[in-house]
Design a protein that fits this description.
This protein is an all-alpha fold and 583 residues long. The protein has helices spanning 25-34, 41-67, 73-112, 118-124, 133-144, 149-158, 174-199, 202-210, 215-226, 228-244, 247-251, 257-267, 271-296, 318-349, 351-356, 359-390, 396-403, 411-436, 449-473, 477-485, 490-519, 522-527, 535-544, 548-574, and strands at residues 113-114, 314-315. Strands 1-2 form a two-stranded parallel ribbon. The relative contact order is 0.15.
């Protein structure tokens, strides 16, 4: 958890008063209430238990991979890992590079310049984030594959008989996967870069201009170095999402670590081998985080004044303004407009087929799973955030940081980490029941909705935690002190004071987790109960059978569900400059 998100109490309590000035009765009571873990063992214990629960998948993978009796490292190293590792590295580096260029360039143009359509494009540039990568991959294969409309029109126009008569880029390739993933993931960099550019001091940029720098020179020498921590964070998110992807890369024929885990586990029935590949996935995630920390360095930038000047937009007139508008519109058109048009055309033409193929049951299951995950994640995040507020010293902050690690785990890795302890528990209970009661208990945890909800909660807990922590920061510590003075316990103060004030933050957290859970494919595909489809697995299954038309309505429903939180996120970023109504 970033240091900036910790409440003052979580960073070590209230500051010492100036010398010679006695503490107020309210300050003294609040300091005594939340000074250490020992005074609130219950809340400290809650935080530690939840963190241990969230770390269970990671511990399971490491233990099984390093101690498995069926270890297959020689075979994996000789035949699987070289190709898989190279493909994954190429895909991650390529996607990170493209998204960094596109996200940074569009964010700088929209933040610092005025050109036709700028305000609309600022909102539209985040829309690709609402579409899962696997849906965009399906749409572009439908358009650009040999039997698609683009190549068919090309053969007709050129009089070509076969694919050997002309050259056309292959969408089912590593370069095609880089292009598809970049079209969907560049908003991560765009949003972080835009937030950084919005909050930079205009005086610094003007000083650079007075020292002879052009607008491009001021960008390279001043604005870009100041934005380096934000760009590193956004690029790290892109890299982790690329590592997590399964549906798009598998459909496009790229053998990444996620695909290898899926194939080794389900198609080759080799759980030990899949666990060892998953361990390599954990190493890859750790390397991404190390690279992000190295790229960010120890850079910390802040304003020395509370006054912020409005951003002095530079006008781009004439044809140059339209070129800037086109540059910003291209990612939106390619990453959102074209896929949505493909989905809408097929959904309208095959609505009956979609309903006949199980769309309604998949939609109901998606809402059920996503609602359960959102509810559990919000409750757990509230407990962790409140524990940090009232018992925010000792082991609690570290426990809360560790509890958010699940977001960095690829879905396939997380699925294996959940299945291992749950299956061990089921086997132990079944063995005891057979021995003492002569009955079989079957599957209690693994293969049930509980396992799926647990995995998705582990993955998206940090999304809810960030929102609720931000909401708690806005609640004055004086309210805690007043509640304690009036005889309230920490639990009753949470119920009567904090919960009413946190309802907006909890609602936003629940909405974000709900949409993320609806879109999640790898973990859902691997952990769902038998004959249980969500919209994500419904779309994946039909597309695997080359029935994309019947899957379009489900894919379009996922996209529409993702639009609201994406637009809310943009609104938060665009209005993040103090003293300004908009970015």
């Amino acid at each position: 958890m970033p240091e900036a998100l910790l409440t003052p109490l979580a960073r070590g309590g209230l500051p010492e008063p100036p010398a010679g000035k006695p503490r107020s009765r309210w300050t003294e009571r609040f300091r005594n209430w939340g000074e250490s873990d020992r005074e609130h063992p219950l809340w400290s214990g809650v935080a530690l238990c939840l963190a241990a629960l969230m770390l269970l998948p990671v511990a399971s993978i490491v233990l099984l991979a390093l101690s498995s009796a069926n270890a297959d490292w020689p075979h994996l190293i000789a035949n699987v890992l070289p190709v898989t590792t190279w493909s994954t590295l190429t895909l991650v580096v390529g996607t990170a590079t493209v998204t960094l260029l596109v996200g940074t360039a569009t964010a700088w143009l929209v933040t610092m310049y005025r050109f036709p359509g700028r305000m609309i494009l600022d909102r539209l540039l985040v829309l690709p984030l609402a579409i899962p990568t696997y849906i965009v991959a399906y749409c572009y294969v439908e358009l650009l594959d040999y039997g698609g409309p683009v190549q068919s029109a090309l053969r007709t126009a050129g009089g070509y008989a076969t694919a050997r008569d002309y050259w056309f880029p292959d969408i089912r390739s590593t370069s095609g996967a880089i292009a598809v993933l970049s079209l969907v993931l560049y908003p991560y960099v765009y949003l972080t870069a835009r937030a950084s550019f919005i909050q930079q001091s205009m005086c610094v940029l003007e000083v650079a201009r007075t020292l002879g720098q052009s607008s491009i020179g001021a960008f390279w020498r001043v604005a870009l170095p100041l934005a380096r921590p934000a760009l590193a964070a956004g690029t790290a998110l892109v890299m982790m999402e690329t590592l997590n992807d399964l549906g798009a890369v598998q459909y496009l024929g790229v053998e990444t670590l996620s695909v290898s885990i899926y194939v080794t586990w389900l198609q080759r029935a080799n759980l030990a081998g899949a666990t060892q590949i998953a361990l390599l996935g954990l190493v890859a995630v750790a390397l991404v985080l190390i690279v992000e920390r190295f790229a960010r360095g120890n850079s910390k930038f802040h304003h020395t004044t509370g006054r912020y000047r409005a951003i002095p937009f530079q006008d781009i007139d004439g044809w140059r303004g339209y070129v800037a508008a086109c540059l910003c519109a291209l990612p939106v058109i390619a990453g959102f407009v074209i896929p949505v048009m493909v989905l809408a055309r097929h959904a309208l033409a095959h609505t009956g087929d979609a309903f006949a193929s199980g769309f309604l049951s998949a939609a109901f299951n998606s809402v059920l799973v996503a609602s359960s995950v959102a509810l559990v994640a919000v409750v757990m995040a509230l407990a962790l955030a409140y524990a940090a507020r009232i018992a925010g010293r000792g082991t609690v902050p570290a426990a809360i940081r560790l509890s958010g690690m699940g977001y960095a785990l690829p879905g396939t890795v997380l699925a294996i980490g959940v299945l291992i302890p749950f299956a061990a528990f089921d086997n132990a209970v079944d063995a005891l029941a057979r021995e003492h009661l002569d009955v079989s208990t079957g599957l209690i945890l693994s293969g049930t909705l509980f396992a799926l909800v647990f995995a998705l909660t582990t993955r998206f807990l940090t999304v809810a935690l960030g929102n609720i922590e931000a909401g708690l920061q806005k609640v004055s510590p004086n309210l805690d002190a007043a509640a304690r003075t009036l005889g309230e316990t920490p639990l009753s103060a949470l119920r009567r004071v904090h919960l009413p004030l946190l309802l907006p933050a909890m609602g936003a957290a629940g909405l974000l987790v709900f949409v993320d859970a609806m879109k999640e494919l790898p973990a859902t595909l691997l952990l769902r109960p038998f004959n249980f489809d969500t919209l994500a697995t419904h779309v994946y299954g039909l597309t695997s059978l080359e029935q994309f038309e019947r899957a379009s309505l489900g894919a379009l429903a996922i996209v529409l569900a993702g639009l609201v939180p994406v637009l809310l996120l943009h609104r938060t970023v665009a209005g993040s400059r103090p003293g300004s109504g908009s970015g």
